[in-house]
Amino acid sequence: MADRPPALPCQLGGLRPRLGAEFCRAAEANPRVCAYVKNQPYLLGATPKKYLPDFIVRVDDGHGDDDLLNLVVEIKGYRDEDAKDKANTMDAYWVPGVNNLGTFGRWAFAEFKESVYAIAANFDALIERAVDASRRRVAHTSSASG
Fold this sequence. Notes:
By secondary structure, the protein is of the alpha+beta class.
């Protein structure tokens, strides 16, 4: 990893305040995180909102600054059936589909299920798991095509 300034702080609001604030602190402290953004959910009257993940974190996983890993992060203090369906859809369809397309960079998905008190302590492990999974995907793709 090249020496770079810390990740720029996210200025968007709305996520469960304590979880979101603690996630931002952990993201800004991790040396692999180059940038991140928090998605802002919305409602259209009484119509249910479309799924928008809580954060997208750009991670230096060793492929260089022009090929950062885009990590979609969902923060769940409580994981109901709806959250499980969203995670399964991301893992089984969205991430493999966008990576197979190959025109929007490399993507991964992670769920942060810990309490607000565990985010800082477990954030680095979440990033390392995403980096390891990305490396395995790249190695599997390389061996399958060669």
